[in-house]
Amino acid sequence: MSALSIATAKEVFDLLRDDLAAIEQEFTRQSASEVDVITDIAQYLMAGGGKRIRPLLLLLSSKALGCTSHSRIRLGAVVEMLHTATLVHDDIIDEADTRRGRPSSNTTWGNAKCVLAGDWLYMQSFSTALEERNFRVLELLISLTQQMVEGELLQMQKLGRLINEEEYFDLIFRKTACLFSVSMQLGAAITGASDEIESQLGEYGRNLGLAFQIVDDMLDLTAAEDILGKPVASDLREGKATLAVIHALERGTGADREAIRTVLAERSFTTVSHPRILEILERHGSIAYAMDTACAYAEAARLSIADLPHSEAKRALLWVPGFVTSRDR
Length: 329
Known about the structure:
- The protein is mainly α.
- It has a single domain, classed as Farnesyl Diphosphate Synthase (Orthogonal Bundle).
- It is about 75% helix and about 0% strand.
- It is built from 16 helices and two strands.
- The protein has helices at about 10-30, 35-45, 55-65, 70-95, 105-110, 110-130, 135-160, 165-190, 195-220, 225-230, 235, 245-250, 255-265, 275-285, 285-305, 310-325; strands at about 100, 100-105.
- A two-stranded antiparallel sheet has the order 1-2.
- The two termini are about 30 Å apart.
- The mean pLDDT is about 95.
């Protein structure tokens, strides 16, 4: 790695504080509708917090390339609107009751209103992006939306079924890493950077997004519910096989595999308990394997921007992978 030092968390948020606040204001402005329920749902979701990692990536990408225009604020709001729309739809599909420690929007407003509010947010994000008058921006966002929808449909087809690592990585790229990648690429799109630079930034986002989702899936299995902000082991209860589970399935005894298959098929811990599954994962080193894999992708993200000019934004981009792999929620 280069001699450039990695930023601290304080340095990163000092660097981005004003821009992140401006993105919050832009999101609030862009998500205001004459139909009150749309505004209410959007504001409820924004007030729920979240890491704002996608707009953070867009800001750092654009700053690393010298962007000072309002485009970075506008598109920061766009990626957060897109992400919020996916959360609304995901909670409906997953029949979730909680999100970030609060009732999910669909438990408050109902599925019908929320799916339409999610659709509205999707369209509003494109309407906002259109103000850029930049075909590359629209091309990236259209491809992104197609990938995310395809990912959700593919996951629905695979619920309750055993999948291999290749299928798992394809799913998490479409559902998570693609938005990370596009958030980085948009920084290049609004600065007129070369295809090579855009590709390097996209690769950083892809690797970071894969690391992020692997950690998310691991926390779903191992974290305490009061820290996670939602019921633990939700993925297994929804019939989703994630990386640690796939690893244990490939290495476990016949009894181990049968226990995991039972939970995936029943989508509950009625026959086989959650502690029993955790014991299987620990015995085969599956949790450690997933964590090691996440850390490898995090390091790959750092390496992918080695050629970027030295800057405070680059120092911050070198910090983000460590934040992603060390978080507890």
